[in-house]
Amino acid sequence: MNSSPHRATQPCRAGLHAGFTLIEVLVALGIVAIALAAGLQATGAITRHAQRQSDMLLAQLCAENALVKVRLARQLPGVGDSTSECTQAGRNLTVAQAVRPTPNPNFRRVDAQVLDGEVPIWRISTVVGRF
To answer: Which pLDDT score is estimated for 130?
Structure first.
């Protein structure tokens, strides 16, 4: 008899060793790879969303500045289309402004659309009247 309070270790039977098989390790690695890929996709989506929010904020500033400029002119804008450049935070954006008549000749509809190259980012409209 063994007088030690600890259990005696027994030798492996029939050459079997304790541990994981190759298939178990590969399955575990596959699960980890899938989890990492999902995390990478989520991180990419968050990054794209943050960039889109930044683009929209800069475009909104450009569009609102264009409409404020029309209001500050204190005269009824002429009907037609025009474009101007707007630089915000080092980005060059294009503001396409369209002035359209309304059924009431004392008012004009003014649309300002901000583009990044050919890609529209933001659009805002207002009605301007005679001063």
So the answer is: 83
pLDDT over 70, % of the chain: 87
> In whole angstroms, what is the distance from residue 77 CA to residue 99 CA?
7
Alpha helices (H) in the chain, listed in sequence order: 22-72
HSE-up of residue 17 (Cα within 13 Å, Cβ side): 3
**d(Cα 56, Cα 22) in Å, to the nearest integer?**
51
d(CA 127, CA 112): 11
Neighbouring C-beta atoms of residue 85, cutoff 10 Å: 9
Tokens of 12: 């492996």
Q: What is the mean pLDDT of the chain?
A: 88
Q: Is the pTM of this model over 0.85?
A: no
Residue 130 near residue 106, CB atoms below 8 Å: yes
Query: Which residue type is seen at 108?
Result: R
Q: With CA atoms as reference, report the closest residue to 62 among 98, 95, 109.
A: 95
